[in-house]
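A common beginner's mistake is to predict each chain separately and then try to dock the pieces by hand. The better habit, illustrated here, is to supply every component at once so that their relative placement is modeled jointly.
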Amino acid sequence: MNLATYARRNMFRRRGRTILTIIAVVVAVLIFSLIRTAVAAWNAGADEAATDRIATRHKISITMQLPKHYVQELRDTPGVTAATWANWFGAKDPKERIPFFAGFAADQNTWFDVMPEMSVPPEQLADWKSTPNGAILGDLLAKTLEVQVGSKLVLTSDIYPGDWEFKVVGIYTPLRKTVDRNSMIFRWDYLDNDPRAAFSKDQIGWMVSRIADSSQSAEISRRIDAKFDEKDDQTVTMSERAFQLSFLGAFTAVLKAFDYVSLAILLIMTLILANTIAMSVRERTHEYGVLRAIGFPPGHILGFILGESILVALVGGLIGVGLVFLLINNVLGPAMEENMSGFFPYFRAPTSVMVTALAASVVLGAVAGAIPAVLASRLKVTDALRRLD
Amino acid sequence: MTEAADSIVTLSGIDKTFYRGKEPIHVLEKLDLDVPSGSFEALMGPSGSGKSTLLNIIAGLDRPTAGSVKVAGSDLTKMSDAQLAKWRSQTIGFVFQSFNLIPVLTAAQNVELPLLLTNLSSAARKKHVETALRVVGLEDRMDHYPRQLSGGQEQRVAIARAIVNDPKIIVADEPTGDLDRKSASDVLTLMDKLNKELKKTIFMVTHDPAAAEHATVQRKLDKGALQ
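With all components supplied together, the output reads:
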């Protein structure tokens, strides 16, 4: 036997209470990790955004459009090596097989040059350029809509009336894990030439540029915006990261709130743990008095209580992290990526989140046990021996 | 009071005052005590007479308000709390009324507890534990948990724990208070054996005149003074 034997045996003295406390820690670790994973997944796209790309949109809002001839002026800006553009289409599946996906019209000659992380076989790209109603889909979206190369696809739009018929000419696959696999890209001229889109004739939604020197990103952005400053439609140009973060700003704010909720979860876990340890210490005060009487110094009592608190938190943390790996990374994550790829193209708990959750469990276990441990170790031996709870 | 040559406990002019709010309660007053080495002393007295307080002072669990406490050659009033803890672990064996065994540890592990504070190896500790349990006649109950033992057996395990580190003095606070007559008799016989055969000094607080009969010296404490 050694001193750890006593601390370990104490842990399951009140089996039911300890198990419930461990479950509370497990649930806290799961919720904390889920929230942190969602925040990390949301930021992943922005974090992995290309640094040599900048995006330009209308100064007032992404929903307002810009004249197409801006693209040429963009290309003429020093530092810009290539530029492309797109329009939001607001695509919807009439059969409602997927609640939301990104569908947009883009320039068939330049889009995939500027977005090389979306990989399309050369022959499919060539088909796209020669097929006016050709569309290229992400592999997950193609699977969900049950189409393949050569299939006909009919969609509706939130913006443009009627049914829109496309021919699937290609499937893109991601070269980066954060690429949305549920997007559809079709030719901008197909939209622009359709009478139903006459109200936005020669208008584009946003432009994306590649720049030669990513360290010049801010300067080139300023130069672009200055170029359009005196025109009817002013622009705002930003890094791709900032553009992605601003695209659904409200959702980012919600995730920021989740960030604070995750901290509150840890606080609640600490209080539950502290309550359990305080009850245990109260029940065992007499016993600690006996140990002190036979010569155990206060430091040992402190160690027993802190050790027990940390052990309960560690067991809960390890089970919690194990469940995070099993449930989030193997069940929930793939389901989210399949169904909510537009928001969460890659939804897996990063190692850093699991390590943080485990470390937080251990540290907060120590914090929870600290006050009862210090109080018990400072109690006079004779006072402790008089306690008979 | 001068210290007798063979005294193991010498108390001189001991005062102990507790406070209830601002009101002082004098539990011990100008108390002198000499306990010869190797004696078996019983301390009797009514409840509230200060018996346990006196026992705690001798065992280094409490400090007097005034006076000098010399036990086994050490002046306890000059020792820090940490020094006292170490001194207790080497000098005093405790036997409590309610046994105070740790319920999650086996009899052997309970007996081993004081030895965890020493530098003994695991094998040496095991040997000491077996010897102590053999002395109290429970070598066949080593792996039993306290809940699997009778009250008398629990107290004998507690006595084994008290002697395992070979202390000079055993202090016992109502050691038979929670036991039936037969178990109490067994425990007292065992304490006789510890005193006579192992030459342990025993200082026992008791209410039971039959238990006190086993002691070689009986003292009575009343209103904070020895009669």
